[in-house]
Amino acid sequence: MRDKLLRMSPAAALIAAAALAVTACWSDDRPIRWSRSRTVLGPIALKAHVAYIDPALDRVVLVDVTADQPVISHTAIGRRAMYAVPSADRHRLFVITRGEQAIHPGEIDQPPMFWVVDTQRPGAAAAYPIGSPFDRIAVSPDGTLAVAYYSASGQDAEGVFRNPNELAVIDLARPPGPSNPALDTIRSFGSVPDGIALSPPIVLAGSPDPTPRTFAFILSASNLTVLDATHPGRRELSIRLDLGGAPVVPREVVFAPGSASAYVRSDHARDVLQVALEAQPADPTVPGDNDFRAIVAELGAGGGPSDVAIYDDAAGRRVVLAATPDTHEVVVIDADTAQFRSIPIADPINRILLFPAGDGPPHKALFASINGGAAGGASRLWVLDLDHLGDPLAQVALRRIDLDKPVRDVVAVPDRDLAMIVHDDARTVLGVVDLATTATAPLLGTGRLDSYDFSPGGGYLIGATSGVARIGFVALDNLHPTDFRLDDLPVHVLATANGKIFVDHGSALGHATVIPSPGAARGDAVVLSGFLVAGVLDEED
Amino acid sequence: MRIASSFALAVAAAATAAAAGHADTNRNELSFGGNARALRTSSANAVTGDNLAGLSIGAARDLALAPLPGLALWAEAGLTTGSADGVMFQTMATELRQLGLTGGLAARYRLHRLVTASARVALGAQRAELHVDGGGSVAQSGQAWGAVAATGAALDLFATSRPPFGIGMRVELGYLAAQGVGLAMHRDSADAVAPLAIRDLMLGQLDLSGPSFAVSVLGQF
Fold it and tell me: Is B90 within 8 Å of chain A by CB?
């Protein structure tokens, strides 16, 4: 019997070894990445792409809609993307990733990063370590500088300390380095930034440095801080806005074209603030002293402006339009002389739109009282002819457009003398006003206009209602409405700069319909399915 | 001619020996049981943290060949099913299904009248199917066939093995190497009339390779 057992032992040993080996490698821990929470950011319309940011797979998904068949590409970014904005020219996408601390297996130590994704070079992104988990980005209009800063949303749950007045100035023309980004803490008088506006390139008059530079206007309660973002190491300027009374909260900065001036509209302020930057020699005894000063002037709006618009007229005169609903006026201010002219308007105006909105002097201004007619029904718009406004002897040409319903919103149609009016909170009753003829045309929707866009050039209004599997088009030349039947309910509609219509259906897998043009037939459209998880099985652990 | 004659004589001798050696055993077998496969590849980890579990059905026949004393060669055919559910990114429910068909050879060695050890190799094909529910109205499925190669070692324990009918239990540990199959996902419920042209995108290569474990009841006759 013992011999028999000994004869059996090699086979038994083999089986035992196999059992041990299989048991040892039976199970493994699933990588933590597949169990992350995932809230996709986007869609974001770019020039010829639509971008989604996947914070679980740490990548930007770019859908290139240039060709008939969309092309999907991926660009890897850092852990936990939390905010993204496109550049003004919509060729680039800027993303802030929160980073990660390696606490659990599979996690990595990664600092907060600022990523630049160039749609013309998909697959590679430039990364700038920003040191702090900022969650807002301001980008200069020329795309050369970006400032990352904190929103006012409260304490970061993952940090011990947070400095809400810290910001990172990133020179996008230079690679990351010891001085790029430049971290700076702005001077504070107890308030924290509510927003940052970056100027277009400005050349300071009289400055020995002829290089155009970008200035950051940092808005906080009762304070306006001006920082030379091109030279972030230099000291900033602080401008106190209140006089000890109610806090003055700056809401809007409008930069004057081609000059070193900005106009600031604030809540609880009587007037529009003009901030003109001038060269001033730096004090060599003060390290990091700046070489400019701010000359502040109050332009006499006189009634707490609710909206401002700045333009240069055909004669080169700078004009500030300020709506003061408290006094039921629109004030036309000559920014050079501070002379002003008040135009009485019966309605409390709080929205000003200029037409045309692009380059060149505008010819008309549209005034609206958004939600102002709830009590009595300010169901009207006002159109001001701007062409002869500079002539003090010319009569002000203000025309009234009567509407059937109150105005809830008004939006300028790009590149057209048209405006879309929203009449109800449900956004089912719309209208289009032609500023040339002051004619209005109602548009009735079958449901709430949940998402809309205008085609490039303003030829079409493109709208979607979340409960209707259709995209609606309105040809703005003749207001002819057409429909495009979809296979799925739309969630978001975008028009890319190359004229394609991208309809997102709101699936975590990625589901979208690409329509080549507003006049396309169904056979021309293509449905992209699964593009947000494409290639996900090929990702390495 | 001389070599051929020698080979024929050798085969005949082996067959005679085998017939003599297996005169007290059954030569056909049917098995039914359960199987599990550990999913360890990165692609399988992507869709589920669970392992595949399912049923297995097998049939085998003694080839009456004895390459070594006490060793018997059996031809085998098997069918396995398996499934695993999972969740991706806390919100996307996944369902993984597989169907495998294999055929191969097993070498069995009788350790005892009621105990047999065996090792086997098999080749075949496997159909992998994945269903992903992304929430909302859109869910997608994809399926593809790919080749598999399986190997394993088993221990058979018989309650009775004498002809005309033997019954027992088999425990097998093995490894299945599966070809990665490209999964193009298709929308599940495209109920639209005359739907738009759909461009489905590849989810990637799904590899269901992994160590396996099976327990089955077998009957021999």
Answer: yes
Instruction: Report domain extents, chain B.
Output: 2-220
- Residues (pLDDT < 70) of chain B are 1-24, 136-137, 189-193
- How far is it, in rounded angstroms, from Cα A510 to Cα B185? 11
d(CA A272, CA A221): 16
Domain B2-220 carries which CATH code?
2.40.160.20
Question: Nearest by CB to B45, which of A25, A31, A526?
Answer: A31
| Total Cβ atoms within 10 A of residue B154 | 23
The pLDDT of residue A86: 94
Averaged pLDDT for residues A51-73: 92
Residue at a domain's end among A405, A422, A444: A444
Question: Considering only A235-244, A461-470, A506-515, B66-75, which range has the smallest mean pLDDT?
Answer: A235-244
Q: What is the pLDDT of residue A21?
A: 61
Based on the number of CB atoms within 10 Å of its own CB, is A200 exposed (0-12), middle (13-18) or buried (19 or more)? middle
Q: Are A381 and A433 in contact (CB under 8 A)?
A: yes
Closest chain A residue to B183, measured at CA: A537
What is d(CA A176, CA A110) in angstroms, rounded to the nearest whole number?
16
Structure tokens at A429: 């009753």
Whether the CB of B69 is below 8 Å from some CB of chain A: the reply is no
B177 touches chain A (CB under 8 A): no
A534 is in which domain, residue-wise? 451-541
- For A535, residues 6+ apart whose C-beta sits below 8 A from its C-beta are A74, B202, B203, B204
Rounded CA-CA distance A134/A187 in Å is: 18
The radius of gyration computed from the CA coordinates of chain A, to the nearest angstrom, equals: 29
Residues A413 and A521 in one domain: no
| Phi, psi torsion values for A99, nearest 5 degrees | 85, -170
> pLDDT, tens digit, for every residue of A250-290?
888 888 767 788 888 888 777 788 888 888 888 888 888 88
B26 Cα to chain A: minimum distance (Å) = 22
% chain B with pLDDT above 90: 57
Q: What is the structure's pLDDT at A85?
A: 94
Write the DSSP string, A431-467.
EEEETTTTEEEEEE-SS---EEEE-TTS-EEEEE-TT
State which of A444, A477, A497 marks the end of a domain: A444
Q: Is the ipTM of this complex over 0.85?
A: no
Q: Report whether the peptide linkage leading into residue A181 is cis, meaning its omega lies within 30 degrees of zero.
A: yes
A251 to each of A201, A238, A412, how far by Cα in Å? 22, 16, 20
A346 three-state secondary structure: coil
A333 with A431, same domain: the answer is yes
Q: How far apart are CA B120 and CA B105, in angstroms?
A: 6
Condensed to tens digits (0 to 9), the pLDDT of residues A335-346 reads 777 778 888 888
Consecutive H or E run containing A24: helix A2-24
Q: How confident is the model at residue A33 (pLDDT cuts 50, 70, 90)?
A: confident
Instruction: Tell me if chain A has a CB within 8 Å of the CB of B113.
Output: no
How many domains, chain A?
2
Q: What is the mean pLDDT of residues A102-119?
A: 88
Tell me whether residues B201 and A530 touch, CB distance under 8 A.
yes
CA distance A34 to chain B (A): 5
B109, β-bridge pairs: B71, B117
Mean pLDDT across chain A? 85
Does A333 share its domain with A434? yes
The whole-angstrom distance between A533's CA and the closest CA on chain B is: 6
Q: What is the pTM of this model?
A: 0.85
Tell me if residue B8 falls in helix, strand or coil.
Answer: helix
